[in-house]
Amino acid sequence: MVTDIPGTTDATFGKEIVKYEEPCPNIGIHRYVFLLYKQKRRQTVKPPPQPSRDGFNSRKFALDNHLSLPVAAVYFIAQRPTAARRR
Q: Transmembrane region positions (predicted)?
């Protein structure tokens, strides 16, 4: 999770408050969503109380940090690769 990204640059100029976790679904298909919020001003954004993405509530996070609605979103789906069958 990256905050304080200047509007004239890219995410590398922001402040990382939660490290990126690569997808690792155990079973079935999982959806992963990236949301972009515009901060009203430069402010301290509190990281989520639990570092795990399980059960993360983006609406509560936005409310707790006084963020408006998302200005952009992108998602992808992932599933665990199937194991090769032995003959």
A: none
Measured at the alpha carbon of residue 29, what is the angle toward residues 22 and 19, in degrees to the nearest 5? 15
Tokens of 30: 């999982």
Strand-pairing partners, residue 37, are 70
- pTM given for the model: 0.73
Amino acid found at 32: Y
Give dist(CA 48, CA 50) in Å, integer: 5
Residue 19, domain member (yes or no) = no
Domain-located, residue 39 = yes
CATH at residue 40: 3.90.280.10
The distance from CA 59 to its chain's CA centroid, rounded to whole angstroms, is: 12
Q: Is residue 18 part of a domain?
A: no
The length of the chain is 87
Please report, to the nearest 10 degrees, the dihedral formed by the alpha carbons of residues 9, 14, 18, 24 taken in order: 20
